[in-house]
Amino acid sequence: MAKSTQKKTNSSSNGELVYPPKEIVKQANVKDYDAVYKRSVEDPEGFWAEEAKKLHWFKKWDKVLDDSNKPFYKWFTGGKTNMISNAIDRHLKTWRRNKLALIWEGEPGDLKTMSYHALNREVSKFANILKSMGVKKGEIVTIYMPQIPELAIAMLACAKIGAAHSVVYGGFSVEALASRIDDSQSRVLVTADGGWRRGKITDLKGIANEAMKRSPTVEVCITVKRTGHEVYMENDRDFWLHDLLALPISSPKCDTEVMDAEDMLFILYTSGTTGKPKGLLHTHGGYAVYTAATHRYVFDIKDEDRWWCAADPGWITGHSYMIYGPLINGSTVMMYEGAPNHPYPNRWWSMVEKYGINILYTSPTAIRGLMRFGEQWPARHDLSCLRLLGSVGEPINPEAWKWYHRVIGNEKCPIMDTWWQTETGGFMISPLPVTPLKPGSATKPFFGIEIAIVDEKAKEVKAGEEGNLVIKTPWPGMARTIYGDPDRFVETYWKEYEKQGWYKAGDSARVDEDGYFWIIGRIDDVIKVSGYRLGTAEVESALVSHPSVSEAAAIALPHEVKGNAIYTYVILKQGVKGGKSLEEELRQHVSDEIGPIARPEVVQFLDSLPKTRSGKIMRRVLKARAMGVDEGDLSTLEE
Ligand code: PRX
């Protein structure tokens, strides 16, 4: 055990405090959290203006925060910038030009690295290709790709020319992709023939082709050749990227478009309580300030660091902390295409050693999954290059926390358990490297962020009691709206605590006597499977799209590795007989429609579903029955 890590038992709260090693404290970017926090919430606009000054602006803002039309807050209004002038262009004028921006390893073991100089050339070429396809400022380009460098390049290229991207996670399937293309009315789709996962090809182009049949807005589909398997390419619609790159249109010189701070950088769809996914909209200005500041402070970023966020760029974690935050901070970013345990469970640990990774940021699911294989796998590698660890996506159980801390971090790497959401753009509750940690707690609010745990009447609950997590004041990284549906934005997040003007996160949590936050989980019909967010309604609508199904309900039950697993209850159409093979067919059907992550663990056939008199499915009753616990108040249940 490393001597510098002291443990103390704190009887006033939950469990032990784990203190950071002295060397970590000595070099920390912020040494006194309390002092900086106090100043940041006393004068948030002053604090954020200071952070914004660290970035490049073509023209400085007139106003830091415009709250004249709540909850549609605006940040840095009047300011002119572009994400790319911060994430790439400004580095080209310094020594960082020749610093590695990206280290990428494919699952089969192929390797690509790119300096900021090289990244700029690739992004510019792609940007010129998009322009030649008629892509205009403000237009939304859909990107559906495996984890390959071209995914990051395509995103950055959109930003450079002022188009917005909508990245659809490469693990999603036909219906999920089609509905997202449809909602954003994308004219251009960027994809790849396939990607590698556990030694097998995922047929992205096949899925994209199916999705394009269902969403006729796509006129141009640019395809990266990754796997080389045979795919169908349609004349006049489908172009191989390598063919376009061979043409003079793909010059490596391209001007970065001057954007308003509040212009749309991207939309990212996430699941909510209805079947229709919400496209959360983020901007060039505030989002850049927020992701850069959170990344730099929470992970104590140094110029010599090699940073690995082992998420997928198709999720907000990938957007904010694989691509934008780290590139603004001029970091060297590691990216890996495939499965953590392919071909063996030491794959990640061998890459940490091989590339000398200093900071690893991942999810509890991944940790629990790798923990199952035993300590002998990480033990084969020298992981002493690691300085800090991170966790995101779901509550981390103390057992996984301790394994991560002891086995991966050798008890000398503090774990930054970061709580946040697609909607928040960046970390909201998180330790800093100097924060004494409590395993399982995301600890304290980030600078400028005020959080409370309240009841339905907006009254703060007592320390240790469960309640709704609310955010009391605006922050620059917040989503500005739901694309095309501002009413839903208000309804979902701001209606319940309208009088107070608070944002309702949809999570239940408690705060202990020391002011440490403990996230319990979602209070709405959102399921977190392996840290991925899915709506029960999406799974249900996939099930009822099958010709044998009349009605369906989906719930989440605890799962050892995935955090939650999906259980479904199905009423079949008259005359259809349930059985093992139909059960399997329905599980596969959900996987084909949404993606393998949504594949239900269980499909159970029932004659009726518990409903309220107004016809709403009572999922909590199904859940209580499945878990064999008290069903609670049944007074609203229809007989
Ligand atoms: O329930 C919380 C959980 O993930 C939700 C947000 O999901 P998504 O928008 O997909 O973003 C995930 C990555 C930021 C939250 O409402 N969640 C996220 N991080 C944590 C967490 N729950 C507990 N602890 C965390 N560190």
Top keywords for this entry?
alpha/beta; 639 residues; disordered N terminus; binds adenosine-5'-monophosphate-propyl ester; 7-stranded mixed beta sheet
What does this structure look like?
Residues 33-87 form the Acetyl-coenzyme A synthetase N-terminal domain. With 639 residues, this protein is an alpha/beta fold. 30% of the residues lie in helices and 23% in strands. It has a seven-stranded mixed beta sheet, with helices on both faces. The chain has a seven-stranded mixed beta sheet with strand order 14-13-10-8-9-16-17, sandwiched between helices. A hairpin with a 5-residue loop joins β25 and β26. The longest helix is centred in the first third of the chain and has 17 residues, at 116-132. It is globular. The N and C termini lie far apart (60 Å). Bound molecules: adenosine-5'-monophosphate-propyl ester (PRX). Adenosine-5'-monophosphate-propyl ester binds next to α11, β22, β25 and β26.
Q: What is the molecular shape?
A: globular
What ligands can be seen in this structure? adenosine-5'-monophosphate-propyl ester
Beta-strand share of residues: 15-25%
Integer average pLDDT: 95
Strands in their spatial order, largest beta sheet:
7-6-19-18-20-21-22
Main sheet specs = 7 strands, mixed
Rg, alpha carbons: 24 Å
The low-pLDDT segments are 1-13
Strands, total number? 31
Briefly note the structural class of the backbone: alpha/beta
Helices, strands, pairings?
Blueprint: E1 7-9, E2 16-18, H1 22-26, H2 33-42, H3 44-53, E3 63-66, E4 74-77, E5 80-81, H4 83-92, E6 100-105, E7 111-115, H5 116-132, E8 140-144, H6 149-161, E9 164-167, H7 174-184, E10 188-192, E11 195-197, E12 200-202, H8 204-214, E13 220-224, E14 238-240, H9 241-245, E15 259-260, E16 264-270, E17 278-283, H10 286-298, E18 306-309, H11 316-328, E19 332-336, H12 347-355, E20 359-362, H13 364-371, H14 376-379, E21 388-392, H15 398-408, E22 415-418, E23 451-454, E24 467-471, H16 486-494, E25 503-511, E26 517-522, E27 526-529, E28 532-535, H17 536-544, E29 549-559, E30 563-572, H18 580-593, E31 602-605, H19 619-627
Parallel strand pairs: 6-19, 8-9, 8-10, 9-16, 10-13, 13-14, 18-19, 18-20, 20-21, 21-22, 30-31
Antiparallel strand pairs: 1-2, 3-4, 5-15, 6-7, 11-12, 16-17, 23-24, 24-25, 25-26, 27-28, 29-30
Helix pairs in contact: 2-3, 4-5, 4-11, 5-6, 7-8, 10-11, 13-15
The structure holds adenosine-5'-monophosphate-propyl ester (PRX).
